[in-house]
UniProtKB/TrEMBL annotation:
It is found in: Chromosome, Telomere; Nucleus. One of its GO terms (molecular function) is ATP hydrolysis activity. SUPFAM superfamilies: P-loop containing nucleoside triphosphate hydrolases. Belongs to the SMC family. SMC5 subfamily. It comes from Knipowitschia caucasica (Caucasian dwarf goby). Keywords: ATP-binding, Chromosome, Coiled coil, Nucleotide-binding, Nucleus, Telomere. Residues 1-12 have a biased composition (Basic residues). PANTHER family: STRUCTURAL MAINTENANCE OF CHROMOSOMES PROTEIN 5 (PTHR45916:SF1). This is Structural maintenance of chromosomes protein 5.
Length: 1077
């Protein structure tokens, strides 16, 4: 490994023998060559009570440092010391989240000290950790300081422990391939780019955001300005219309001022006309009064003659009315007698008709009796039918009993069916509730990983394509017996497997992946169950023997899963051998971890992983807090669901059988009903035949009784006729007396009526003369009243017009704003002279002007004010727009300058990385490319580095992702990308922890050769490569340092270790071997 002629240097990793864990340890460092450390490289790492170390000091070399040691010896502890000693966060390591967890178990304090190379003088950073309160105390070059000062110093040396391109712990190796293109670009810029590159990138993103804001602002200002101009141009027309409307309103105002004066003049002229008309009416009224006096005197004389005659007419009319009344009474008496005679005749006629009907009924009854006697003779000759009726009754009773039996069976079946239906609905609801819980789990899967959910939908539609059993994502197939225990299973099984599909056959899995991953381009995981089932594999120890530590179950017993899923979990995660405990287990954890066969265990809220060193048999533990379950806390008992489905099918089958039985009973009942109806008809026929003789005898007896009654009820028609004739003769005598009285009264009435007529004729003559005189008088009086009313109206009109004229004059002066004694101003007189002089013309002109003014709707003085205000706003907007446009131009110039300082160097940097990366892959007979990827050249926050690799000649270049390549391929790609960054030498050191674990031997050897060539070439960044094992016959370089981590109870304590004696013995042994040859 090294040449003896070159200078040798030793590095000791010391471990205190006084440690409670016992034993000692050394880390040997053998390197040759000069010390060419770059700025910020690690010169020394010192650890005290830190993880597995009591006291250890490591002196790394300036180039490649291979840290080799078995699992559990403390290799990753050195990585943790580098990270935490340089103010890194615990999250970077992916182990314990509290700083106190990194203090050695059993100790209250621990410390890490790191010495960094600097040409002006090395920097020593010391971090003391308090395990009890998770606090840290910092020292920088022996002086106390805060963590921010340390972070600033580390940042100045371009050390970035949070950058996966510079610092890649064991737990974060898989996350490198998960980095997005954007994250990878930023990490690369920080790691190997010049200091101003990342700064320019951030400025470009900020400038671009500001440019977008300015562009939007300019666009909004331009749009607003354009709208304001258009709106003002439109309002300019409104302003012109407003002024035109104002001119019309002024004319209207003048017309309205002149109109009351014209109205006043018109009213005054009307008043003069009324005065003249009133004088003429008074003269006409006096002439009419003198002409009507003689006519009134003659009318009075006629009225004196008419009054006695009218009294006589009234007396005669009363006498005529009395005679008429008496005549009417006699006429009524006569009519009554005539009616009595008619009633007697009608009564006799009715008696005659009744006698004729009586004779016919007697004859008909005798014939009916004869017919019934003849039919009775025929019926008496037939045999007795009582036995036949008894037989029919017996058969009807039998049918009734059979019908009762059928109804009972139908009722029993109905009750059973109702009970079964109720039970079916209850089971159906329980099954629906279970399906709803499964839907909730699927919804969570869809929200967290849409590709897996889409693949599940495809699988359900195409399950017939597969020969073996296929199960959906484990998170849907695993069913917790108690939701409180879901956190243990979810913590124990990786999320990639929780969303993985499980196949019984490998060929089915390959077919599935071809469909969903290659054709549908979905990112899904799939696994194949072991060929031999492991689901019933027994644990290494019975759970009863562990109950004294608080363990109550193994992980497998906490959930149910299909056979293939459980088999895979037992083989891959050994769920059958992982015990779960409680608070008692937590309290006894120091004793529990000493128990053999326990590798992983769970307490109530923590997970413990136990590792045992193959060399020293020392135990190291890692614990982490359990997080609440997110996917498995929704439980559905698969066995119960299967039983429910089976019970539902059984109930459906039984209800179907009951329906068939009910149909059969219904048919049987229908047949009985038909037979029953036939027997009832037959019984009715026999009963009718049996009762017919008795009915005939009863009918004959009834008819004979009726005949005897009719013979006894006969009347003497001749006697009735004689009595009727005597009554009619007596009534006619009374009629004669009444007629004589009637004739006397009618003669008296006729005489009185004639006398009354003569008096009426005399009255008519006098009345006609009086009417003629009254008509003439009324005509004269009417004309007199008309003239009189006219005079009254003209008096009232004169008074009204005088008041109106006073009011019109007052109103006209008010409208013109004149004082009571003031005359019309000259300016109004001149303006009025240009306007029409009549009301009609003024009204016509007013209507015309108002119509024109009304055409200008929606206009007011605000239109002019808004127009002027908007003109000022437009000027301000134009000024703002000019300033914004200028500012945008300045920002675009800044972007151009920043882009020139960022994009071209970045392209050169990516080109250099691509050259190195491609060369590395070509040396491995593979292909790889690195390019700068962006969808839009102006979207600087979307730029990213894309890594594309090809490991097989038959495939195409594929982007490096966490799903497409295997774990070994991702490790090779990650390692070669980091090596491509190594030669650019922009960071002081790089750390890669156990990245070769997933590689096959061929790729591991190739990658190792590339690492040695690259990291040992001249002055380059310091490189830490941590691995638990190395292949044989590897190529080594003189510039590399190999640190062997020895950790065990048989190691010498550091104060007894003699490195010179050890080297002397090794050389002597080598010399003896050479002599023997």
């Amino acid at each position: 490994m090294t040449e003896p002629s070159k200078k040798k240097r030793l590095s000791h990793a010391q471990r205190s023998a006084e440690s409670l864990a016992g034993g000692s340890g050394t880390a040997e460092n053998q390197s040759t060559g000069d010390k060419h450390f770059v700025e910020g490289a690690i010169v020394r790492i010192s650890m005290t009570n830190f993880l597995t170390y009591d006291n250890c000091v490591v002196y790394p070399g300036p180039n490649l440092n291979m840290i080799v040691g078995a699992n559990g010896t403390g290799k990753s502890s050195i990585v943790c010391a580098i990270c935490l000693g340089l103010a890194g966060k615990t999250a970077v390591l992916g182990r314990g989240d509290k700083i106190g967890l990194y203090v050695k178990r059993g100790c209250s304090r621990g410390s890490v000290e790191i010495e960094l190379f600097k040409s002006s003088g090395n920097i020593v950073i010391n971090r003391e950790i308090n395990g009890e309160n998770n606090q840290s105390a910092w020292m920088l070059n022996g002086k106390h300081c805060n963590q921010k000062a340390v972070e600033e110093e580390v940042k100045n040396l371009r050390i970035q422990v949070s950058n996966l391109c510079q610092f890649l712990p064991q737990e974060k190796v898989g996350e490198f391939a998960k980095m997005s293109k954007i994250e990878l670009l930023e990490a690369t810029e920080k790691s190997v780019g010049p200091p101003e590159m990342y700064k320019y990138h951030c400025e470009l993103k900020n400038f671009r955001n500001k440019e977008k804001e300015l562009e939007n602002g300019v666009k909004e200002k331009s749009n607003f300005l354009e709208k304001a101009k258009v709106r003002n141009e439109r309002n300019k027309h409104d302003v012109n219309r407003y002024y035109e409307m104002k001119r019309h309103l002024d004319v209207i105002e003048l017309l309205e001022k002149k109109k009351p004066w014209v109205v006043y003049e018109t009213g005054r002229a009307d008043l003069e006309d009324v005065k003249k008309e009133r004088e003429e009416a008074k003269k006409q009224l006096n002439a009419l009064k003198q002409a009507q006096a003689p006519m009134r005197k003659r009318i009075q004389q006629i009225e004196d003659k008419l009054n006695p005659i009218e009294a006589q007419i009234k007396n005669k009319s009363l006498a005529v009315k009395e005679a008429s009344t008496k005549s009417k009474q006699k006429q009524d008496q006569l009519d009554k007698k005539i009616k009595e005679i008619e009633d007697m005749k009608q009564s006799l006629k009715i008696k005659q008709i009744q006698e004729e009907d009586h004779r016919k009924r007697v004859s008909n009854t005798r014939r009916a009796v004869d017919d019934l006697k003849a039919e009775l003779g025929k019926v008496s000759d037939q045999p007795d039918i009582t036995p036949r009726i008894n037989e029919v009754n017996q058969e009807l009773r039998r049918i009734q009993i059979e019908r009762g039996r059928i109804e009972g069976e139908k009722a029993d079946l109905s009750r059973e069916k109702n009970n079964l239906f109720s039970e079916y609905k209850m089971l159906e609801k329980r099954l629906s509730d279970m399906n709803n819980m499964m839907n909730v789990k699927e919804e969570k899967l869809r929200n967290s990983h849409r590709d897996t959910f889409a693949a599940l939908q495809w699988l359900r539609e195409n399950k017939q394509m597969f020969r073996g059993n296929v199960h959906g994502p484990m998170m849907l197939e695993i069913n917790m017996k108690d939701p409180n225990y879901a956190k243990y299973v979810e913590c124990h099984i990786a999320f990639r497997d929780l969303r993985a599909f499980v196949f019984q056959r490998k060929d089915d899995m390959e077919k599935f992946m071809t469909e969903v991953r290659d054709r549908m381009n979905l990112r899904v995981n799939s696994i194949s169950a072991p060929a031999e089932s492991r689901s019933q594999q027994k644990p290494s120890r019975n759970i009863e023997s562990l109950k004294r530590f608080g363990f109550f179950s193994y992980l497998r017993e906490l959930f149910d899963a299909p056979e293939e899923v459980m088999s895979y979990l037992c083989e891959q995660y050994r769920v059958h051998d992982v015990p779960v405990g409680n608070e008692e287990t937590k309290a006894m954890i120091k004793t529990v971890i000493e128990e053999p066969y326990i590798k992983v265990l769970y307490t109530k809220d923590e997970r413990y992983q136990i590792k045992k060193s193959l060399y020293s048999n020392k135990i190291s533990t890692t614990n982490s807090a359990l997080h609440p379950s997110q996917y498995l806390n929704i439980t559905v008992d698969a066995e119960e669901k299967r039983q429910l489905e089976e019970q539902l099918r059984t109930l459906q089958s039984r209800m179907k059988d009951i329906d068939e039985q009910q149909k059969a009973l219904q048919k049987e009942a229908a047949a009985l009903d038909r037979h029953d109806n036939e027997l009832l008809a037959k019984k009715k026929e026999l009963s009718e035949l049996k009762g017919k003789k008795r009915q005939l005898e009863q009918k004959i007896s009834t008819k004979l009784d009726s005949l005897r009654q009719m013979e006894h009820s006969a009347i003497d028609l001749k006697k009735i006729e004689e009595e009727t004739k005597e009554k009619i003769a007596a009534t006619n005598v009374q009629k004669v007396s009444i007629v004589a009285s009637l004739v006397a009264h009618m003669k008296q009435r006729a005489t009185l009526s004639m006398e009354n007529v003569y008096l009426i004729l005399e009255t008519v003559g006098l009345t006609a003369e009086k009417a003629k005189l009254e008509t003439e008088y009324r005509e004269g009086a009417s004309e007199f009243r008309v003239v009189e009313q006219r005079c009254n109206r003209l008096d009232q009109k004169k008074i009204q017009l005088m008041e109106q004229c006073k009011g019109m004059m007052k109103r006209a002066m008010q409208i013109c704003r004149m004082m009571p004694d003031q005359s019309l101003p000259d300016n109004l007189r001149n303006a009025f002279s240009k306007l029409p002089d009549t009301l009609d013309e003024i009204d016509a002109m007013l209507n015309e002007e108002r119509s024109r003014a009304e055409c200008f709707t929606g206009l007011s003085e605000n239109v002019v004010d808004e127009y002027n205000q908007r003109e000022d706003e437009i000027k301000c907007l134009e000024k703002d727009l000019e300033e914004k446009t200028l500012e945008l131009a300045k920002y675009r110039q800044k972007i151009f300058d920043a882009k020139a300082g960022w994009l071209n160097p970045l392209k050169q940097l990516v080109g250099q990385i691509n050259d190195k990366f491609s060369n590395f892959f070509r040396s491995m007979q593979c292909a790889g490319e690195v390019d700068l990827h962006s969808e839009n050249e102006e979207e600087y926050d979307k730029y990213g580095i894309r890594i594309r690799v090809k490991f097989h000649s038959s495939t195409q270049l594929h982007e490096l992702t966490a799903h497409h390549q295997s774990g070994g391929e991702r490790s090779v790609s990650t390692m070669l990308y980091l090596m491509a960054l190594q030669e650019l030498n922009q960071c002081p050191f790089r750390v890669v922890d156990e990245i070769n674990q997933g590689m096959d031997p061929v790729n591991e050897r190739r990658v190792f050769d590339i690492v040695v060539r690259t990291a040992c070439k001249g002055i380059t960044s310091q490189y830490f490569f941590i691995t638990p094992k190395l292949l044989q016959n590897l190529r080594y370089a003189a510039e590399m340092s190999i640190l062997f981590v020895h950790n065990g109870s048989s190691m010498l304590p550091p104060n007894k270790w003699n490195d010179k004696a050890f080297i002397k013995r090794c050389l002597a042994k080598k010399a003896r071997v050479l002599l023997k040859k």
